[in-house]
Amino acid sequence: MSDTNAHSVRFVRQSMIPEQEPPLTEAGAIKWIRENLFSGWLNILLTVLSVAFIYYVLSHMLPWFLNTVWNAGSLSECREIRNATWGSDVPSACFAVIKDRWPQLLFGFYPSDYYWRPVLALVVFLAAIAPVLFSGLPRKMLWFSLASPFLMFFLLWGGTIWGPIVVASGFVLGYALFVGLSKAAGTLVGVIAAIVAPVIYWLAIAGPLARGLGAVLPIGLEFVPSDDFGGFTLSFIIGIAGIILSLPLGILLALGRQSDLFLINKVSVAFIEVIRGVPLIVWLFTASLLLNYFLPPGTNFDLMLRVIIMVTLFSAAYIAEVIRGGLAALPRGQYEAADALGLDYWKSMRLIILPQALKISIPGIVNTFIGLFKDTTLVVFIGLLDPIGLSNAIRATTDWQGLYWELFVFIGLLFFIACFSMGQYSLYLERKLQTGHR
Amino acid sequence: MASLSDPQRDTFRLSQLINDSRYRSLTIQTVAMILLVLLFSWLVSNTVQNLQALGKDFDFGFLGEPAGYDINQRLIEYNSQATHGRAALVGILNTILVAVLGCALATVLGIIAGVLRLSNNWLVAKLMAVYVEAFRNVPLLLWIIAIFAVMAESMPQPRAFREGGGAEMILFDSVAVTNRGVYIPTPVWGDGSTVLVIVFLASLVGIWAFRRYARKRQEATGDILPVFWVGLGLFFVPSVLAYFVMGRPVTLDYPELGGFNFTGGLHLRNSLIALWLALSLYTGAFIAEIVRAGILAVSKGQTEAAFALGLRPGRTMNLVILPQAMRVIVPPLISQYLNLTKNSSLAIAVGYMDVRSTLGGITINQTGRELEGMLLLGAFYLATSLVIAAVMNVYNNSIKLKER
Known about the structure:
Number of helices of chain A: 17
Oligomer: heterodimer
Shape of chain A: globular
CATH superfamily of the largest domain in chain B: MetI-like
Number of helices of chain B: 12
CATH topology of the domain at 102-110 and 226-438 in chain A: MetI-like fold
Number of strands of chain B: 7
Largest sheet of chain B: 3 strands, antiparallel
Strand content of chain A: under 5%
Largest interface: A-B, 56 and 54 residues
Number of strands of chain A: 2
Radius of gyration of chain A: 30 Å
CATH class of the largest domain in chain B: Mainly Alpha
CATH architecture of the domain at 102-110 and 226-438 in chain A: Orthogonal Bundle
């Protein structure tokens, strides 16, 4: 090549020049800073404003955080320690309150000898939820997940172990009847038997049976009444129970709203719209003030159970709307293909429609769950002691009067961790289930 | 299916009600209907029995009785001799007030945060991400009481505003932020202010008419008129002219420190400020995500195509990106407005007198009419959301992609 140019060009390089370092302004940190922080006058302005804002916030927060008093019995003691150590005009946090009262914030008035029970229940929950969340784990663990609600109930409330076992055996009975009778006498008979027999069993037989077994073999834990529950234990119980119960109900409502059956459709629409149209706090007041009107005279059941029912119904309506969006987003051809294969309604839903619709709805469902968990704080208004209610109670004591930020920071942080990890899990699941070709 | 299986209408067997898909839906609905009627009659009979046992009746007459309690925050005339119905109305107006204020501020915050989160500036993008995540993942109730605590605990007392007290009014001595609330100037409508208002409304109509004309003309001839600048001029110039021509009919009444407290001006209570800020910041974080998703939903090819057609960046944004992004943004945005309105019932945490606190709180406690009060309260919220949902459907249909 050089030969062809040799007669016309005075100099032709015969070899490559060694690769040079890029100019200083086009490499490494300087390039990054130039491109990301100072690429134009608007960017420079934004950067300066942000730095000023961050400096303002940190200059107010950091000294307060760094001068934390961890060991004190009251706010005045905190202030004395601060005056002795840093002087009286230095901002100083008093996280001693968390150190002093964390059992209360986490467990409410749960007997302190039995703190291991809510903790163990949480461990059971994590172990039970793991195979649902991560498909890499052995499928056999799902059997433990099925048994875990009864185990958690037993751990939290205590009492005789026969109660949860007898109730759980009702489900086993229903399942056995369904499998046995579907084969012998048709699906319809199987379904009806599987619903009716356990209900009769629970209403008529379960109570005496549990008492009888309890009298013969008194195995159990100390009973803890619902009034003793509080703090994050309460938030978690309401939140988790609501999440677990509202998903199936929400799916049923969404199917009801898509249904061709006039009555089912209208009832589902009315239920969803009424529940969604009214704030949760009004529903909670309804649960605490009005529920006794609607039930037979003399019925009086646990406030916590009422709250769980209300929260479940509430978030089920929201989940139904999210799933309806997923159902509507599926191409019509999927429904038609399912029909063409000769699948009946439930089979086509279970095998073809719902797996796809639920996948599309994951972000919305998780957002609803996050909302539900945050909304558990509203129970403070009907007299349950959630973390915010307990922080008010702690502030009302003479020791810690006038203390706000330390409690808010602690509570906010715990909620943030729980909600943020749920959000991150939904992102992970979206990526994992992403089957589109991009 | 029916044509294949040779329907024998004359020999109807009972088993067809279950096994024949033509009749099965009727069977299912009949069973559901019976169950539903049974459930409702059970609930109603329980309620009747319970009401009888308590010696109560079902009567909305209490709305006409004197309420006997004061409401510190009101938009219409109200005193403790007014009726429960009027107290409920005051509460409804308060709910609407905080909802409208909150929606406005939340939209501004949400758009700013959503756009800035997509900015090339790393620091700003991260800062906005922190804002969004912090507010989305912490309960609203905590934010409301935290902001209320800031207002009540960290702000100076009114007497600190006296000479040498250490606190100063902001914005040219017109706004005082104290621990009892925020004092702002209030406009005093003098003689001739009606003319001013009419001029202002007329200029709004003028802007609308000009935009219409400009669009028609552009569609007909392709000429583009400077809509923005003319609109801006029309917005300000006539009103300012009228203001001076009429001899400055509107003046501001500034808050003044008198004794231990401020007099004059408008007193915005801490409860309103805390609720408003917390609702706006919280909902703004959600709106930021909606705006971000809306902008990202418009594919990059649209921008490139607009540039290839020779449109400038501003025009690309207005004519190509925004109309498409709005279609994605508006429905969830309105649903956020609805959420904000419903969340305003958390006013209970700071003692703001919204409809839940008046009708659903004090009125119920004083009259013992839980059933009626909660029904009315639920009906109000339900009506609000149904109206907003109806408006949303109309809008959605108007911007829907016209297919086939």
